[in-house]
Each structure stands twice: as C-alpha cells, then as structure tokens.
Specification:
Shape of chain A: globular
CATH class of the largest domain in chain A: Alpha Beta
Largest sheet of chain A: 9 strands, mixed
Order of helices and strands of chain A: EHEHHEHEHHHHEEEHEHEHHHHEE
Oligomer: homodimer
Number of strands of chain A: 11
Strand content of chain A: 15-25%
Number of domains of chain A: 2
Largest interface: A-B, 60 and 60 residues
CATH architecture of the largest domain in chain A: 3-Layer(aba) Sandwich
CATH topology of the largest domain in chain A: Peroxisomal Thiolase, Chain A, domain 1
C-alpha cells in the first residue's frame, strides 16, 4: 500500500446557517480545500453525513455534491456511521489512495441540522441509538450520556466540577478559533449553573446543534512532496464497532470501540499513547471526552476526570486535547465533525493554527465516534 | 492490487416481511452467505441501505448489524447512494480486499420498506431525487421515469407494447425464482390494462415496495481456490455520478452515469459488451431496463425497445437480462438490490440457478443505479 498525505483542508464558519443549504456549505468547504491543495480536479470523493434524509429530506447526496462541485462523473460515495461519518469518509479515502485505485481524493462531511425544530433534531440524533431497545422507550442522547456520567461518578469518584472543566478548557480553546460556532469562554460556575438537561448533564456539558461542513484533499505522499504545502502523512487508521445500545455493554463507562480502533491505529503507525503530541477527540458531552482519553490510553481507566484538574489536556498542558475548541465550542454538525477534527490536526502540524498554535507538534491523533460509542474511527498523523 | 472472489452468497425470500425487523432480515441473509462460504469470522463489512433513517428511524446500522451478526468489534461501514447502495457496498468491499487491508469481507444491503404507509414510502424514495429542484415541486419517482419513457417514445418511436414486454420477460424469469416477491407471469395485455400510475407507466411497469436483504462474502482469489465453492472472480468495477435532477441533463433518455461506470468496468476487465454472456440490471421501471441496455452498449442508442420484440434479452435469447426476475418480479428493497443482483450472477456462474439456469455462462455483468440514474455502479464477474 502507498503512503497517503493530506494536502488540502477547508471549512467555513460553523453555526446556524439558515441562509445556506446543505449543498452550498459542502461546496464552499470543498472549494477552500481544493484551493489549499492547489488542485482543481479529483479522481473520487467520500462524504460523511449522518442523517441528511431526516434533517433535510435528501439522500443520494454523494452524487448531488459531486455534481455541484463540478466533479461529476467522478465516483462519489456517502458513508454513515452516525457522528463518526466524517472520520469514516477519511478512512475510505485513505484506503482508495493507499490501494492505488485513485490519486487525488476529496473526503469530507456535512450536516445541515437547524432547518428542523428542536424536537425533530432530537429525533434525528436519536437514530444513532438503538431505536428498538432505547429510542422507542423514551431515552435521548443527553439521557444516555447522563447514565454514563452518573456511572463514572459512582465508580471512579469523578466530580461534577471535573466534568465542567472539560467544557471550560474547550471553550477557552474555541475562543481562539474564528470558525467556531461559540467562540467564547465559560467558567466552571457558569457550567454548574446552566440549565439542567439530563441529570447530571447541563446545557454547557452538551455540544450544540450545528450547520457545517469540512473537506480534505488526499493524495500519495510522493505526489504531495511536489506540492506547495508541508506534507502531513496519515500513518495510522483504525475503525471498530460495539453494541449501539448502551445497556448491552458490560461496562457503560468504557468505550470499547474507541479502544479497539486506537489499538489498530497505534499498531499501524508504530506509536504508543505517549508518542502522541496532541489530539482532537469526540467531546459530544463533557463526560465523553473523559471516557475517550481513558480508552485511548492517555490516562489510566477511571483517572480521566483528575486529568482536567491537573490541566494536562490544556493548550499548555502535557497532552493538549481539542485545541480547536472541540465539538463543545466549535460546534457539532454530526457528519462533518470527523473531517473537521483532521483540519485542526493538519493546521497544528503545519503551524497554521493562529492564536492556539502549539509549539512544533509532530504527531497528532483524531478520534471520532458514533452514538454512545457504538462505532469509532481513529487516525494518526505525522509531519514529514 | 490482489484479485478478489465472491465465495458466499445469501438471501431469504423477499416480500412484505411484517413479522421481521431490519436487523433480522440482514442477519438471516448474512448467516446464509457465511454458511455458503464456509467461514464464520469476517475481517470487515459494508452494508448498503438507502434510507433506514426515514423507513425505520434507525441510522448507525453498520455497527448494529455487525453486533447482531456476532462480529463486533470488526469495522463495519454503511454506504449510501440511493438505490445503488448495495452495488456500492460491493465496490468498497472489493477495494478493501484488493488493497490487502482485509481478507474476508462481508458486503450486503438491506431495506425495510413496508413498516411505513404508501405516502411515507413515496416520500422516502423521493429523497433520491433532487428535493429542492424536483421533490418539493411535487414530482415522484414514477413521474420522473414517466418523463423518461415519454421522451424515449417520442424520440425513438419506442412503443407502449415494448415497455410491457420488459415486465413480461422479467416476470417470466421471476416465476422460476423461489425467492422472488411476485413469482408469477404477466401478459402484455395485463400490463397494458393495469392501473395507471404516471402516464405512460402503469402499475405493472413499476418495481414494488419490498422488505429484503442480501449478502456476499469476498476474499482474495488465492484463498478462494482452497475453499469449497467454484471461484467467481470480480474482474471489473466502475462507479460514476451524474446530476440527480433529471432536468439538469442534456438528454433525459441517456444514462450517462451507467455509461461511464460501464466504461470503467469494461476497461478494467478487458471486456467489450459482446463478451458479456448475461446481465442483471436496474429495472426499477420498465423504461429503465431499456435505457440501461443502451447505456451498457448492448444495443444501439434508441434501439432498446426493439430488443424486447426480438426477444434477445429473454432466458433463451442472445443476451439474457435479469434472469432472476429483476427488480420488477423479484422485488426492490432499494439498498439490497445491488447485492442481490450479484447473487444471481454467482448462482448462474456456479450452475446453481435451478429452473432458470443458463447454459454454461462464463461472464456476467451487474448494473445498479440510484434515483433517476444520478449514480451507477457496474461490476463484471468471471468463472475461473
């Protein structure tokens, strides 16, 4: 298999983009990525979207987006694994370039979530849980993550304040990201006094409903070396599954799919958790980020909460997590999130992350997951 | 890239399966495919489904199905390109095995369409058209194909009787297929006198609403040679896109995506249209099959209708098309159709097609398309 590089990245500001349609936001991001890469023709594309069918009544978006991007008749594939759809699009694009089937592949994600009302959005997001065993009985995603949070607090003495510190850190980073949906800081007190959603999770523990898209251009490393941008290689990829119903798991505080996907990616990249300089991870709720850093092996099982008191995941910490602001501050257009995580990794590795730039990072990891952790995709990136 | 074989196929009887859920029908077909291949462990899987979100309120099905098949934590990916989702799953599984990333990959498709009422099913299917330019203005899929049919009749003197002959031929084949939803014969008169749906298309010109799944097991050819079944190789794959809105095409009687996908597959397999012994194609409406055989180069542009008077596509004809009964008689669970087409190809090449068995066919082609032709996937198969 050939080595693969990310040679272009593009996204526009995320938020409630009522004046734009799904096709518009995807094409805008894709054109930025093509421009960043300095190419105008692609061989193939992959688009992650969780539920364009329910959110905007449109399936078959892979063809529609290839057409509106002026790239038809190229092969174009939509992939879906709930909120990990963007990461999965990257994995398939990687495979297509690595296999030699194509040279220049666009991968990205998109979700237009604010054209429906809150009740409909909650229903659409609920389709990532097991409808027959969870959704039809009344539970929503904040409810599922609240169960995880409560179990983690009981089992490991994780505190309500530690959960809040995840949001505080991510908003502090997001305040330095001009593309973030909510680029402002919050305090622990503000989180603790915000509206209750599902006990113990409050509104400032939850990532928002967002319209947004993100796109990346991939090509073989040999080709990337002749192009205008520093070469960022994809050196590891992993993808794994678990039960999508929380009650079918042995331990609801443990993200097995993330653990398995990371194991594959670490092995492929020949890296250990301590070799990773920074990460973008799936903080759909504050408790999620805590569970993720445990499953990735960055901290011991049960010690995730403590890491936030010790500030090891802050911009200045030992292992910065979600320098972009994460899903919490940057926004969470579900199908696009996995692709946008990689944009932050690439920007940091290239030294283009502005006010939130880390000091010369070499190795980054992106972790994207679906539902309450029933699917996960992990990638490792290295600056050449 | 490695050579890839299909070593197992599985599907159960299609129809209105009200007593079974989406997960049940997919798992049943998959277990049959695993049994047929003689393997019980897979490395990865791909599932095609067009709109499980709208039809049964469930996204994230790739993980759910891997779990219910007892295969989690293997990577599992859902792909979607409307009614060509099953064919696309095959293409990606092919790529994963060919690239060397995995050895044994399950690919399949599923759609559970009869748990909603007719109005909702029409809406769900309409999401394969361009909602902003077509659906919201009131047109449905029978309406879109009626426009194509009328244009083909005006431009090429295709007759209403020729359209009917497509249905007659496919029902004649389907009557020999015990898994078909509607395994009975119809006459030209019956088609011409059936209920009008969208002039000139009548109910017997339309494929039905169906619950169904289909699954295939892929592995490298070298591994397949050591297994119990005759080796069926995938020698060509093609995938292409076009505008999903019919009015954006230069000529609505011409299926450009099918033409482009076939061109890729023919080139890869080093085959010409005249080298193909038999085909399974996407007859979602009778007019579709006529346009498809033109785009595949089996007959001259505009001569598709005449081919049915000459009976060249019949079971005993020069180039049998849809020996399985096609979408018309076998049924059309949209995401599963592309995988089921391949089951028929494999059964014919192995000599396991029962009453509808062709005499020693060597090369088969499967063509699967989305919407009114906005995406198409073509594969070529050869018996070793």
């Amino acid at each position: 298999m050939r080595e693969v590089a990310v040679i272009g990245v593009g996204m526009t500001k995320w938020g409630e983009l009522w004046e734009k349609s799904l096709r518009t936001i995807f094409v805008e991001s894709s054109l930025l990525a093509l421009d960043d890469a300095g190419v105008d023709k692609i061989d193939s594309m992959y688009v992650g979207s969780m539920s364009s069918g329910i959110f905007v009544g449109q399936e078959h978006i892979a063809s529609m987006l290839a057409d509106y991007l002026g790239q038809a008749p190229v092969p174009s594939t939509r992939v879906e694994t709930a909120c990990a759809s963007g990461g999965l699009a990257l994995r398939l694009g990687f495979m297509e370039v690595a296999s030699g089937m194509s040279d220049v592949v666009l991968v990205g994600g998109v979700e237009k979530m604010t054209d429906v009302n809150g009740h409909e959005a909650t229903y659409a997001l609920g389709t990532a849980a097991d409808q027959e065993y969870e959704g039809y009985h009344g539970i929503t995603f904040p409810g599922l993550y609240a169960l995880i949070a409560r179990a983690h607090m009981e089992k490991y003495r994780t505190t309500r304040e530690q959960l809040a510190m995840v949001a505080v850190k991510n908003h502090r980073n997001g305040a330095k990201n001009p593309l973030a949906q909510f680029p402002f800081e919050v305090t622990v007190d503000a989180v603790l006094n915000s509206v209750m959603v599902a006990d113990p999770l409050r509104i400032l523990d939850c990532s928002p409903i967002t319209d947004g898209a993100a796109a990346l251009i991939l090509c073989p490393v040999e080709m990337a070396r002749k192009m205008k941008k520093p070469v960022v290689k994809i050196t590891g990829t992993g993808h794994a599954t678990d039960t999508i119903a929380l009650n079918h798991r042995k331990d609801i505080t443990w993200l097995e799919a993330t653990f398995q996907a990371a194991k594959q990616a670490y092995a492929m990249a020949n890296k250990k958790p301590e070799d990773i300089d920074f990460l973008e991870v799936h903080d759909c709720f504050t408790i999620a980020e805590i569970c993720v850093i445990e499953a990735l092996g960055l901290v011991e099982k049960g010690k995730g909460g403590k890491a936030y008191e010790d500030e090891i995941t802050s911009l200045e910490g030992k292992i910065p997590v979600n320098t972009s602001g994460g899903l919490k501050s940057k926004g969470h257009p579900v199908g696009a999130t996995g692709a946008a995580q990689v944009i932050e990794i690439v920007k940091q590795l290239r030294g283009e992350a502005g006010e939130r730039q880390l000091k010369n990072p070499k190795v980054g990891l992106a972790q994207n997951m679906g539902g309450s952790g029933g699917s996960a995709v992990v990638h490792i990136f290295e600056k050449e």
